[in-house]
Amino acid sequence: MANSIYLDNQATTPLDPAVLEVMLPFLTSKFGNPHSASHAYGWETEAAIDVARAQVSSLIKAQEPNEIYFTSGATEANNLAIKGTMQAYGRERPHMVTVNTEHKCVLETMRYCESMGFSLTVVPVNAKGLVEIDSLEKAITNKTAIVSVMAVQNEIGTIQDIKTIATLAHSKGALFHTDAAQGFGKIPLDVQDMTIDLMSISGHKIYGPKGVGALYVKKGVRLVSQIHGGTQEDGLRAGTQAPALCAGLGMAASLAETSMITEHTRIRHLQETLLNALINLYPPLVVNGSLDERWVGNLNISFPGINGDRLIANLRAIALSSGSACSSGSATGSFVLKALDLPKELISSSLRLGIGRFTTEEDIQIAIEHFKSALEKLGKL
């Protein structure tokens, strides 16, 4: 919508024009099947996928590009990481550990595995949305196959201490997996330094296309394939690869690698401008989750004393959300905010504002004016 201010960058991000430019040839003239090994049409699309694999690998500092496996998105990558691990290692190590603020595709995949006979421990977070290391340590045993903790929480933006958690998992002989859909390309992620075994990646969260993601699998880690029917992706994920989508993800990763630091500084400024203005307009405002250990583009806030639905109804000119896009429509309220043990009043009046690459200073100022108008209409100013 041309007249709408877009502040929902956690749900999805607009496609970067540079990404589209790279993708277009593979939607038109370069249409070959990358698995056609006998002619140039196949060779050029296979080469493009190799370039994309290297670009994704470079951003997360993987040891080699072949540790990157393309998927349809982070949800598939999470399923492959968790189910694949349990099928490969679960006989000797039938236990899984995760955190209660994980994305539903992690929680539900682990619960599916639990229904198949494996055991699961879900560790709570504290009031800031961070998992306590002592609690996690108690949960992991010598029968734990996998520990899965999200790098950046999708609703409240909290950044977990991934390196420490990975070290803890390894001390008990478990693999460490992180759903990095919201962290990939936004915060520094070095899989070798952080000793990450498995990392799930999404394209449309970093100005790339929807329908593509990747799973980083550390060399030597065994997974059982979840999609059968071909030898693609080194036999781990059957199905014809989509060169346009892979090329788009690769370019998005490359752009993120060169702009991450400057973007972080610029977006932090916009976040501070917006938050300070909203606090001045409505001093009772509460920030949900840690403000320090947080991706700066995520601002989850509550307006105590205001009906959240009525507030959103008066902010139609701003694209925002009241929680995860994947949980949109839920009548029970955010399970993530409930996990922070927030009172019902704060949960029901919460909004998530997502600032991104294409958000401007002007957008923020216009958004502030819309909030001012909405609060006036509700009799709160």
From TrEMBL:
Its EC number is 2.8.1.7. It is an enzyme of class 2 (transferase). It comes from Temperatibacter marinus. Signal peptide: none annotated. Residues 5-365 form the Aminotransferase class V domain. Keywords: 2Fe-2S, Aminotransferase, Iron, Iron-sulfur, Metal-binding, Pyridoxal phosphate, Transferase. This is Cysteine desulfurase. It catalyses: (sulfur carrier)-H + L-cysteine = (sulfur carrier)-SH + L-alanine. InterPro entries: Aminotrans_V_dom, Aminotrans_V_PyrdxlP_BS, Cysteine_dSase, PyrdxlP-dep_Trfase, PyrdxlP-dep_Trfase_major, PyrdxlP-dep_Trfase_small. One of its GO terms (molecular function) is cysteine desulfurase activity.
